[in-house]
Amino acid sequence: MIQLKNNTSEISIDKGELVGYKVNGFEFIHQKGSPGWSSSDTEMFPIIGPVNKAGFRVQTPKGPAVQDQHGHLRQMEYELANHSDTTAVYEKKYKAGTEVFNAKFPEKSTEEALIWPYDFKFKKSFVLHEDSLEISFRITGEQGMPFMLGYHPTFKLYSSAPTIVTKNREITLDEVLAVGSRALQVADCTSITLKDEKEITIETKGFGNFMCWTEVRNMVCIEPISFYPYAVEQSHLHNGFQLLEDEAVFNVLLKPKA
Asked: Which Gene3D superfamilies match (predicted)?
């Protein structure tokens, strides 16, 4: 466990997972062990969404790849590259064709091993500022590799009627709950504010969209995504890919209201 601190804030990171973000003693992140979800954040890469109805296969220029919901990156372990009092950098490296054990097997999946036909390196960086937390993702790998990226942070809820506010929309918790496991789409959006007992704004670069998910009232996931997976049939999930050039960089800024 690594903790980064400054005069007003502290974050806790467990093997690359953001498990705490306190500002003046107030915790914004959903705590493991609380109802709703067993994690507090993760990444969705190189796909977003389920593929069970497509035989756990996703089409790529190199042929079908064996994937499960939200991709195989989250089944891999981060390595700590470096850290200081206010920064931490984690990496995952993947060699094309390497089998990655699927934790969903056998209870929730027929696929024991997940395989991707491209090399890549995935870097996740944390920078704790006095007034915000910056999380960035840098992807390098084979030229032309198809991918989509989603970040899946989870926020702790305190009040009975929190709202999620964009530039032109206000979303209630009940609306998110009503959509269920599909997650509520928030298209063409780069900034969202969660208004609860305290407020926090999620500003993004590179993603372009959000989706919101929860099945309980004590937490909500507000997820920056490059593509909303339920816009297509699972067999056409490849329509949401973008192609890697030299590198791809995505940024998320968590800004609590002072």
From this structure: 2.70.98.10
